[in-house]
Amino acid sequence: METSVSFLSSQYSFEKTIRLINESKASYIHVDVMDGLFVNNVTPFNRNMLDILKRSKKPKEVHLMTLHLKEFIDVFLCIEPEYMIYEFEATTNHENLIKYIKNKNCKVGMAIGPITDIALIEPYLKKIDMVLVMAVIPGYGGQKFLIETLDRIAYLQKIREEKRLDFLIQVDGGINDKTYAYLKDLSLDRVVVGSYVCKSANFDKQIEKLKV
After folding, report:
1. 3-state DSSP assignment of residue 16
2. CB within 8 A of 185, min separation 6: which ones?
3. Rounded to an integer, what distance in angstroms lies between the CA atom of residue 198 and that of residue 194?
4. Helix or strand holding residue 58 (H, E)
5. How many CB atoms lie within 10 A of CB 35?
6. How far apart (Å, rounded) are the C-alpha atoms in residues 95 and 80?
7. What would the pLDDT profile of 159-170 be if each residue is shown by its tens digit?
8. Is the pLDDT confidence value at 142 over 70?
9. Quick one: pLDDT band at residue 140, thresholds 50, 70, 90?
10. Pairwise CA distance, residues 200 & 9, whole Å
11. Which residues contact 58 (CB under 8 A, 6 or more apart)?
């Protein structure tokens, strides 16, 4: 199972956090983007931060918790992400947005909040590359992992197997060594970890605990 590290809840400076992620065994850098509209929080990015992310040697995935999705997609293309992930609840025009992202040479991820019926994304599973299952309410770090997430993962795994689809399944929210125990035997492809890694003295030690 791969790990994608979100840097928002870090005890270090932005530049040092990105350096430590790059030096770690993390698989991806997870770039959370919040606009204060879709969620209450705002992530303050500037040109220097974007340049640092662009130069990062780790592959990146951008997670847009925003409205005005195309505008944010265009801005964050400059860091050359492999995946562009948007929130299902942020638009009703999924076909258009999926095509827009693919035309930018990015893989498409669709995130879905914990109170949204997971079955609503089924019509799009053939067209996207990843489903990001939110195990917390989007927008705030440090929330507890919602145990109902396991049923949602099982649903996606069943659909993927029965229809022979190849989208990845990723989980984000409340991941640590204790909650990972619920996930380690599932056919998950990737987990997003934040404060569990970035508030530690040793990133690799924390990442390794998620592989036990």
Report:
1. helix
2. none
3. 6
4. none
5. 19
6. 23
7. 999 999 999 999
8. no
9. low
10. 11
11. 21, 22, 26, 27, 28, 29
* Distance (Å, whole) CA 82 – CA 84: 7
Write down the pLDDT at residue 212. 58
* Of 27-31, 59-63, 178-182, the least confident: 178-182
Task: Record the pTM.
Answer: 0.94
**CA proximity to 190, closest of 83, 87, 101:** 83
> Which amino acid is it at 101?
I
Question: Are 173 and 192 spatial neighbours (Cβ–Cβ below 8 Å)?
Answer: yes
Q: pLDDT above 70 covers what percent of the chain?
A: 98
Token pair in block for residue 49: 């931060």
- Give the span between the Cα atoms of 63 and 132, in whole angstroms: 9
pLDDT in tens, 32-82: 999 988 988 899 899 999 999 999 999 999 999 999 999 999 999 999 999
Looking at residue 40, the DSSP 8-state letter turns out to be S
Say which amino acid occupies 164.
R
- Cite the beta strand spans of 97-189 per DSSP E: 107-112, 130-134, 168-172
Structure tokens at 147: 């145990």
- Would you state the structure tokens that stand for residue 5, as one six-digit string? 């590290």
Q: Is 3 helix (H, G, I), strand (E, B) or coil?
A: strand
Kind plus residue range of the DSSP H or E element containing 5: strand 2-6
Q: What is the pLDDT of residue 137?
A: 87
Task: Specify the DSSP class assigned to residue 173.
Answer: S
Whose CA is closest to 137, among 203, 210, 87, 208?
87
